[in-house]
Amino acid sequence: MSGAKPGADAPTRPAPMERGGFYNERSRLQAGGGAHGLPAIARAFERMPLGDGPVTIADYGSAQGRNSLVPIGAAIAETRARLGASSPVSVVHTDQPDNDFSTLFCLLRDSEDSYLGAQNIFTSAVGRSFYEQVLPAGSVTFGWCSYAIHWLSAAPIAGAGHIWCRLTTGDTRRAFERRSADDWLIFLTHRAAELRPGGCLVVVQPSMPDDEPSTFPVLMGWAQAELDAMAADGTLREAEAARMTVLCYERYPADVRAPFANGDFCGLVLAEDFLNDLPDPFWGPYQATGDAKTLADQYVGFFQAPFRPSLLAALDPDRDTSFRKAFADRLESGLHRRVIAEPQPLMTPLAVHVSLIQKR
Ligand SMILES: C[S@@+](CC[C@H](N)C(=O)[O-])C[C@H]1O[C@@H](n2cnc3c(N)ncnc32)[C@H](O)[C@@H]1O
Does the residue 4 lie in any domain? Predict the structure, then answer.
């Protein structure tokens, strides 16, 4: 099993997605959410001056790239429609330094869905946090960021004591809220520097309606109950259990809009934004088939790919491979059992928020 590098500092920042294509194979929900941003790509290109090119497309938080193929392909098609079929395009995929970029480049080489089938496309990668400037000032024509900006830059406090930031309470919850607001400003500030005048950025992020306090309350409540049981019987040490927090904090539409309340922010304008409901992709098929095992496989698969690395990273460095595997197996088989015992829609409430942002 892969996982984030263990170490004393590991739980303080998000762990990368599970390696070896594992995330690529288990990110159908994220792909479906990202698709809501595709129409905004066309509208971005309608607004943007392209001059004579060349065009640079940046993909912020690419992971292993599978879910980037369609949106980046769409941005290339828009470019080609304006500048000609062989106009040069530079695509830069960016993610954390420990992201599995090797799987991404192999996918670009081997997949029949790869945009590299077209000529004159040049791909590169940057392994650096998007909470820093990662590309030269004024160099990006179009930016895409899907299902990545809800990952916080770091834990605002040590030992939040719950797996899901939005299910924490009191001062802890407020600390996450502040960090999320600050991170959004930092992200926008750096993209403002990188975009060319007139350049656009489409950001797709998981969100929820105003009256919902958290995404996935049942799934994450069950996961926390499994972790509590392992802490109670001594499988997990107290400090390990306390720092087992996945550093995701989804924003409400109002949070996304906040920096633009008085007009532009760092020269960026919020050209449009919208919230779409995101139905649970697994619940409908289950209702038709009644196949609870498949439903449990799908929910656990959704949980594993993005979240398991963060939990493994919270284990003490002296935990060996067999302990790590046994820990993950116990947590996931517990979740699996609970789904089969009480089948219910777990990918809810969930919505997707899309913003189209333009540099003046
Ligand atoms: C859930 S995946 C989304 C991947 C892909 N964009 C998609 O739509 O499926 C989130 C990605 O954001 C990356 N990420 C999280 N924090 C980041 C940061 N500070 N800088 C760059 N990438 C980050 C993670 O490493 C991960 O690869």
Answer: no
Q: In this model, does residue 4 exceed pLDDT 50? A: no
Name the nearest CA neighbour of 249 among 174, 166, 305: 166
Q: Whose CA is nearest to atom 19 of ligand 1?
A: 129
Q: Taking the model in full, what pTM does it have?
A: 0.95
In CATH, what number is assigned to the domain containing residue 284?
3.40.50.150
Q: Is residue 3 part of a domain?
A: no
**Closest ligand 1 atom, CA of 63?**
27
Q: What was the pLDDT predicted at 10? A: 42
* Centroid of ligand 1 to alpha carbon of 187 (angstroms): 13
**Is there an atom of ligand 1 within 6 Å of 310 CB?**
no
Whether 171 maps to a domain, the answer reads: yes
In a domain, 2, yes or no: no
Q: How far is the CA of 319 from the centre of ligand 1 (A)?
A: 26
Predicted confidence (pLDDT) per residue in 194-224, tens digit: 999 999 999 999 999 999 999 999 999 999 9
The tens digit of pLDDT for each residue in 40-83 reads 999 999 999 999 989 999 999 999 999 999 999 999 999 999 99
Question: How far, in Å, is the centroid of ligand 1 from the Cα of 131?
Answer: 12
What are the strands, taking DSSP E only, across the chain?
55-60, 89-95, 121-127, 140-146, 195-207, 268-277, 351-359
Q: How far is the CA of 342 from the centre of ligand 1 (A)?
A: 31
Task: Tell me how far the alpha carbon of residue 96 lies from the centroid of ligand 1, in angstroms.
Answer: 7
Choosing from 62, 67, 132, 153 the residue with most ligand 1 atoms within 8 A of its CB, the one to mutate for a pocket test is 62
Q: Which two tokens stand for residue 148?
A: 């990545």
The answer for 53, left when phi > 0, alpha when psi is -120 to 50, beta otherwise, is left
Number of domains present in the structure of the chain: 1
219, two tokens: 């799934």
CB 91 within 8 A of CB 59: yes
Residue 314 sits in which domain range?
Answer: 10-359
